């Protein structure tokens, strides 16, 4: 998951915002002029509208093509802009003015993906014979692309593989980072398939104020946390882009194929790049696309170019894979399927997601039991009432309560969760009591992770990161 501070587009200069709106406008025009699907056009138009709103908020002026901003009134960058009525989601920014968080149903429409509905969850259960993970049952993984194709393949005994990743921007992961790894592990166990995990140290070098050495070091440190989630070494390949690109006979070829089939205009439209972004950023999306193709891993898949890929990731990564799915058929490959998760909300509220760069917005995997307790008690946004009397009378609001939201991620017991929801909503359960349940859920979970991480040796990291055949014959 990308690290996100407050509002990236709010911190952009008015001129940069102007350029983003202009680029998005060009993209909409080129989509309408080309053979783009209505979904794609719709998604691009929605993004254009939301960028225009951001522009207006920042400058106080309506966007006018060809007229860069003049004499604008800058807005403060302290926290979310509340005048915005559109959620903003891209790989770097997640922002909404709604305390309940991003409107995910709208996002499905805007991104043109499909909802993970009861029918699909039932099918997963039927096909695998396993109870669907609580992330599926509770709508934490809420959207998908082509998951039915994966299930068809599985039913027909056709192989597929999993791909997920992490941008190593800091040494410590927070609990939000665990979501896609916990889910990837479950998928790997249920379907018994290979998993590749990309560590985009190159991306973090390009985007952050980091040296190459530091970014690589973080990749290795993060690999330990990922391994500590319990992945099977015989079925999992973890790689750093900085390392693997030079070692693989397949990966770079695919990067170049993607690069040849995506124009600057397209990435401008998808990612909001401007003329002043370095060319490393502009070509990076091809690096994140390449692992979606089995021929990027000849040591695992031999010469097979048609093993389908399934990517569990947070929805903010979807722009990369929309681009990937668009190029895939043009370079003779299958489109990767996707499973999208909602964001893990910041302690301060669901208006934005957790960020590694703000220690108080997150609970880290390195936090002590005491830090966990203090952070939750002090910072977790409460949907409770101001006084005990009022709370008892009117009850709390689970929809905006961050402690309750976190419990939906980490408390596996459905009955207990439902009882707490009822008790909190009725006012029988107080905020302090709800927080206590969360603290007591997270403390042992994080302590256990720390225990497992301690056992991970450099040698194990090296094994996971060595290109090799896995326990599958292709
Ligand atoms: N760009 C992602 C991040 O910043 C890392 C990533 C690379 C990734 N490949 C991925 C995430 C595939 C999910 C799926 O965190």
From TrEMBL:
A single MF term (Gene Ontology): ATP binding
Keywords annotated in UniProt: Aminoacyl-tRNA synthetase, ATP-binding, Ligase, Membrane, Nucleotide-binding, Phosphoprotein, Protein biosynthesis, Transmembrane
Coiled-coil intervals, chain numbering: none
GO biological process assignments: tryptophanyl-tRNA aminoacylation
First and last residue of the signal peptide: none
Annotated family: Belongs to the class-I aminoacyl-tRNA synthetase family.
Top-level taxon of the source organism: Eukaryota
InterPro entries on file: aa-tRNA-synth_I_CS, aa-tRNA-synth_Ic, Rossmann-like_a/b/a_fold, Trp-tRNA-ligase, uS15_NS1_RNA-bd_sf, WHEP-TRS_dom
Name of the protein this chain belongs to: Tryptophan--tRNA ligase, cytoplasmic
WHEP-TRS domain mapped to chain residues: 13-69
Aminoacyl-tRNA synthetase found in the keyword field: yes
Lineage of the species this protein comes from: Eukaryota, Metazoa, Chordata, Craniata, Vertebrata
PROSITE patterns according to UniProt: AA_TRNA_LIGASE_I (PS00178), WHEP_TRS_1 (PS00762), WHEP_TRS_2 (PS51185)
CDD domains to which the protein is assigned, alphabetical: TrpRS_core (cd00806), WEPRS_RNA (cd00936)
Gene Ontology cellular component terms for the protein in this record: cytoplasm
Sequence ranges of Polar residues compositional bias: 74-83
Region feature Disordered, mapped onto this chain: 67-87
Enzyme Commission number(s) of this protein: 6.1.1.2
């Amino acid at each position: 998951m990308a690290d996100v501070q407050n509002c990236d587009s709010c911190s952009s200069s008015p001129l940069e915002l102007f350029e983003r709106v202009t680029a998005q406008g060009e993209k909409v025009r080129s989509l309408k002029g080309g053979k783009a699907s209505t979904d794609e056009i719709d998604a691009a138009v929605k993004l254009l509208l939301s960028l225009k709103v951001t522009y207006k908020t920042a400058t106080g002026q309506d966007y006018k093509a060809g007229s860069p901003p003049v004499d604008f009134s800058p807005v403060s960058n302290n926290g979310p802009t509340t005048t915005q009525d559109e959620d903003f989601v891209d790989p770097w920014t997640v922002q909404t003015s709604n305390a309940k968080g991003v409107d995910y149903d709208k996002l499905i429409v805007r991104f043109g993906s499909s909802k993970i509905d009861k029918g699909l969850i039932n099918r997963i259960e039927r096909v695998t014979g396993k109870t669907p993970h609580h992330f599926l049952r509770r709508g934490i993984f809420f959207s998908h692309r082509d998951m039915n194709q994966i299930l068809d393949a599985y039913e027909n005994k056709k192989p597929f593989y999993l791909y997920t990743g992490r941008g190593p921007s800091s040494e410590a992961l927070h609990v939000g980072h665990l979501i896609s790894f916990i889910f990837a592990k479950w998928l790997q166990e249920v379907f018994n398939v290979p998993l590749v995990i990309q560590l985009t140290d190159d991306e973090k070098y390009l985007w952050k104020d980091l040296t190459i050495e530091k970014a690589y070091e973080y990749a290795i440190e993060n690999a330990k946390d990922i391994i500590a989630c319990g992945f099977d070494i015989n079925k999992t390949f973890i790689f750093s882009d900085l390392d693997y690109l030079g070692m693989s006979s397949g990966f770079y070829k695919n990067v170049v194929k993607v690069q040849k089939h995506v124009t600057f205009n397209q990435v401008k439209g998808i990612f909001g790049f401007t003329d002043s972004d370095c060319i490393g950023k502009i070509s990076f999306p091809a690096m994140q696309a390449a692992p979606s193709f089995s021929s990027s891993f000849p040591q695992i898949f031999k010469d097979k170019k048609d093993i389908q890929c399934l990517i569990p990731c947070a929805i903010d990564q979807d722009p990369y894979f929309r681009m990937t799915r668009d190029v895939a058929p043009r370079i003779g490959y299958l489109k990767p399927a996707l499973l999208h998760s909602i964001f893990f909300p910041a302690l301060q509220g669901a208006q934005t997601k957790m960020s590694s760069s703000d220690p108080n917005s997150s609970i880290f995997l390195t936090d002590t039991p005491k830090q966990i307790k203090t952070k939750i008690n002090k910072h977790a946004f409460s949907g409770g009432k101001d006084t005990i009397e009022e709370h008892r009378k009117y009850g709390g609001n689970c929809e905006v309560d961050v402690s309750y939201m976190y419990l939906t991620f980490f408390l596996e017991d459905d009955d207990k969760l439902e009882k707490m929801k009822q008790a909190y909503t009725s006012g029988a359960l107080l905020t302090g009591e709800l927080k206590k349940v969360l603290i007591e859920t997270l403390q042992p979970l994080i302590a256990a992770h720390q225990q497992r991480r301690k056992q991970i040796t450099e040698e194990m990291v090296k094994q996971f990161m060595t290109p090799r055949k896995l326990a599958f014959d292709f």
